[in-house]
Amino acid sequence: MGSYQVLIIGSGFGGQCAAVNLLKEGIEDFLLLERRDFFGGTWCQNTYPGAAVDVPSPLYSLSFASYDWSRMFAEQEELHRYTQHVIERFKLRDKVQLGSNVERVEWDDQTRQWLVHTAKGLYRAQFLINATGPLSQPVIPPFEGRERFKGKTFHTNHWDHAYDYRHKRVAIVGSGASAAQVIPAIAAEVEHLHVFQRTPHWVLRRRDHTFNRFERWLLRQAPLHTLLRWSIYWQFEARVIAFKYSRSAVRMVQRQALRLLECQVPDPTLRRRLTPDYLIGCKRVILSNTLYPALCRANVSVHGQEQGIAALDETGIITRDGQHIELDLIVWSTGFDATDGVISYPVTGKNGTRLRDAWAQYPRAYLGTSLPDFPNLFIVTGPNTGIGHTSALFIIESQMNYILDCIRTLNRRNLRSIEVQSAAEQRYTEMIHREMQRTVWKSGGCHSWYQSKSGHVIAMFPGFSFTYHRLTRRFRLDDHILS
């Protein structure tokens, strides 16, 4: 199908950021491969009712592409428009091949190129940037009898807008971030809503605000926009103190969450069911002003662990305590394979090394981005690059400093390949998991999607985002093999 200097897999914010940075570097010989039939990633795919970002919009945007946001926490439609704004502003539409699901990739030792096998044919590239993102592979638990259910089912990641859920008996399986947005959006319109939660989540107030005309005018002025962006950044960065360095700070935040729970959930039985037994931050914290009131509605039932799903049959769900719940629709709000499934397709590196084997214990990567024996391969939002307290786009832009420096160094020296040394990756990974021991994600008393099957916390970076930015700011020649 073609040969390029760089192939980018995925067209969400990670892929767009990589593409724009390549253009700024003067590199135009690249192509984005997108498996879907549209360009844009998460905020074009996730269209479920209530979908919105949980990081303030002025910060949840690319530093080189500011936007006239209408509110502090943008909803899905506006995020979709922002995605299209970036695509059009930087003329990326002609740089993408849609419907190109990657089936496998392999390094050619002789030509020192990546061979990328897709549904549309074979591509070759000197450099390969995986930007598929950690939240792209939906997970549906293998409940007994799942295939027997005759009603409607879908995952929040694939919301079926042709199905009318109004006045229907609906179950939402899961109680995380997506469920917390869907529940208030549909609760008033369904006949009855059954919420199945494995464990409750901590909830804090969502400090949302619609910008009026004058505020929007002010924020279009570059200095004021920059000031707001950085003030939000430092306010959110302070959360790491609680997540890692101060248990008293964690408990102070937890008391805020408990006050919200007590204020909005008057029923003591329901309140107990919604009270987590782990430290706040161990699982993703939900920001919502409407979740608890929705769960208190007369037509909403919250099923805890003891009333969890035992099996499904033709007409509904059988719970562990013997109830049979008749249903018309089951919505799987059960998240994504964000740790062990960071890359969903088979990858074969130098000398036939398989990524599956390299990650047999747990996924790992130098700066969460590159691996020994996989030359010229870069993973955007790879292992331990997640950030629980601020914008993921800040991390993505930090990764680009390292990735572009690698490519720039090879081009300047007229060389073909670069890979991180095994010892450098080992030192970095040991540091990450040593630092992780102090965090609430590791020692907060929960099991979350942040952890891989090994028990290692794979999704999160154990520190301040500015620390990660400093680590990626300069390419360390001694940590790499160039040829």
From TrEMBL:
<dbReference type="InterPro" id="IPR036188">
    <property type="entry name" value="FAD/NAD-bd_sf"/>
</dbReference>
<dbReference type="Pfam" id="PF13738">
    <property type="entry name" value="Pyr_redox_3"/>
</dbReference>
<protein>
    <submittedName>
        <fullName>NAD(P)/FAD-dependent oxidoreductase</fullName>
        <ecNumber>1.14.13.-</ecNumber>
    </submittedName>
</protein>
<keyword id="KW-0560">Oxidoreductase</keyword>
<dbReference type="InterPro" id="IPR051209">
    <property type="entry name" value="FAD-bind_Monooxygenase_sf"/>
</dbReference>
<dbReference type="GO" id="GO:0016491">
    <property type="term" value="F:oxidoreductase activity"/>
</dbReference>
